[in-house]
Amino acid sequence: MTGLTAELVVDGRAPQTPALAPNGRLLCYVLAPASRTGDHLDTELWLADTERAVAPRRVTADISTESRPRWSADSGAVFFLSDRTDRGTPQVHRLALADGTVSSVTSWRAGVIDHLPLADPSLVALLAQDEPTEEDTRRAQDRDDAIVVGEREPHARLRLLHLRTGLVTTPAVFGDRHVVELRQRPDGGPLAVLTQAGSDNDYGPRTGRLHLFDPSTGATVELGPAGAGARSLAWWPGEDGWHLGYLALTPPLLQAGTAVFDLAVDSRVLRNRTSGIPMCPTELHQTDAAPLIVFADGLNTTLARLDPTGPTTLSRHRGRLDDLTTTPTGEKIAVLTGTRYEPANVHAGPPAGPLRRITNTRPELNGIALGTQQPLAYRAADGLDLDGLLVLPVGKAASDGPFPLVTIVHGGPYDRYADRFQLFWFPSAQWLATAGYAVFLPNPRGGQGHGHQFAVSVAGRVGQEEWTDILTGIDLLVGEGVADPDRLGIAGGSHGGFLSAWAVGQTDRFRAALVLAGVIDWGMLAATGEHGQFEAALGGSTGWSGVGPHPHDAVSPISFAGRIQTPVLILHGAEDTNVPLGQSVYLHRALRHFGVEHEFVIYPREGHSIRERRHQLDLLRRTRTWFDRWLGP
C-alpha cells in the first residue's frame, strides 16, 4: 500500500461537464486540474466512445482554459469555449469531428460567457457582455474609472452568431436585463430565456423573469416572474401544450429547499411538482419527452422522470450523480459519479442503469491506503431522522477505538455529505484518516437531501437545532467507544466554519478547532457578503432592522467569543466575496483580545475556494499539523 501525500491530493485531474452527442455514441468532457500553478487554470477537451472499450483521447492541444462543450444537432461538431487566442477572454471554437480541426468562430472583444448551438445549423446563441467602446478604452487609459453603482453595470445579453458569415448580431430584446440561461424547445421552436434585473448575486436571483424568443423572427413573449435562484430550464410536451420547467427555491423564504416548478406555457399555470417529496432536486434535464430529475436522497441519489402524475423513479445510486447529460430521446445518459473509495469519473448507460465507467482520471490513487467509510443513521434530540458518515483511521476497525475524532461540518447550509469518496483540497475525512483520526461527517437539519421542511428549518435559527444535531452524533460515537471524549476536534468551511466557530463558543469539549472562511457575524455578512439577503434569511435579521440587539446577534459566534478557550486555526482567502475576509479578522481580533491561542492564515489572491497549488498544499499540511498538536496521543 502507498501512503497518501498532499501532492497526490492536489495534483490530480478530474473530468467536468460531460456532454453526450445527440446520437449517443460519443461524449465530450473537460479535464481540469485540482489546483492552479499559474495565473490561469489550464484545462483540456477530451472525447470518449460510449459504445466501445477504447481509451478517451485529447482533442485539443493548446495551453488554454477550455469549457462548456456543446454538440451540434447532427453530432458532427463540438462547440466549446477557449481562451487560447487571448488568455482570460473566452471565444467560441468549433471542433469538426470529420477531420479533427479546431477553428475559432467568434472574436467578441468582451469574451463569450455561454453558448447554445441551435436547431438551425447556421445559428449559435451566445451570452456575452457588450464590447468595450472607444469611450471605455479612453477612460481606462486615463484611469477615469470611478465605479458608480447602478451605472454601466455589465450585463450578459442574448446574441446570435451566424456561422456562415461569422457575424454576431444583438437582438433588441429584454431591455437592460441580465440574461442567465437559454434553452431551445425540443422541436426547434423558440428559446426559453431566463433573465434577472442585474448580475449581482444579492439582488439578481430574486428578480428572475421568463421570456420566449423566436430566433427566426426575433419575436418575444413575456411569461412572467420566475422563482428565486431559478436555473435548469427544461421544456416538455403535455396534453395541454408545451410546459417549461425550472429549479428554484421554494417560496417564500430565500433559505429553503429547491423544487421543480412547472409552467404550462399556454395557460400560465405554475405548479410545484416536487412538493412534499422527502428529497431535493438538484438538476432538471430536457429530453424530447418527459424531463429527467436528479434528486439528492439522503446520503445517496435518485434519478427520476417527471411524468404527468409526478416523478417516477428510474434508478438509485450510492453517493452522488452530478453534471447529468442525456441524448434527446433520454435513452442514454452520462454523469459524474464515483464510489466510497474512488473519485468521480464519467459513467454512461441507460437511465435505469447499469452505468459503465468511461474515464479513469486518477489512476495514481490506486493502491492508496484509505480509511473504512460507513453510513450513520441516528435520531436528533427531538426525534428527527438524521444521517451522516463515519470514516475510521486507516487500517482500523471501530472495535479498535476509541480514536481522536474530528467532526467536519459541511457548508451551505444547503449542501450535504453523500456516501462518496471523501478526499479534497480542503479538510476532508480521508486526509485526516491517514493520520490516525476518526472523522465524523454529519448532515444536520438545514441541509440538502431530505426535502423542503428539513432544509428550511434553520432559517433564522442557525446554530440552534442544527448544532444539537451534530452534538447528538458526537455523543453517539463517544458512547459506542469510537471517539475519545478527551480528544475531540471540529472543523468546517463557510457555513461549516460558522458551526465550528459557534461550537467553541458554546462548549469547551473540543481540544482544537479549524475555521475556514467561516461566518462570524451574520449582520456583517448580510451587509457585505455577495449573497446578503440569503444570509439575512439565515441569521434572522439585518443591521437595518431597527435598534438592536438584533436576532442575528444571538446566533453570531462573535457574541460568544469571550467564552472561547479552544485553540482555533483560522484560514481565509484574501479576495473572498462570498464570506469576506473581515469575518475572520473579526474573530482573530476577538481571540487576541481574550488571549485565546490561535493562528490566523490569509491566502493572497484567493476567493471562497482556495485554488493555487501551493496554498492548497499549505492548507492540507497545516490542518494535520494543527490537529496533531492538540489531539495527538
From TrEMBL:
Pfam families in the cross-refs: Peptidase_S9
Keyword Hydrolase carried by entry: yes
GO biological process, one term: proteolysis
InterPro entries, alphabetized: 6-blade_b-propeller_TolB-like, AB_hydrolase_fold, Peptidase_S9_cat
Coiled-coil ranges per UniProt: none
SUPFAM superfamilies, alphabetized: alpha/beta-Hydrolases (SSF53474), DPP6 N-terminal domain-like (SSF82171)
Annotated Peptidase S9 prolyl oligopeptidase catalytic domain residues: 429-632
Keyword Hydrolase: yes
Molecular function, one GO term: serine-type endopeptidase activity
Highest taxon above the source species: Bacteria
Keywords on record: Aminopeptidase, Hydrolase, Protease
Protein name (Swiss-Prot/TrEMBL): Dipeptidyl aminopeptidase
Organism the protein comes from: Prauserella muralis
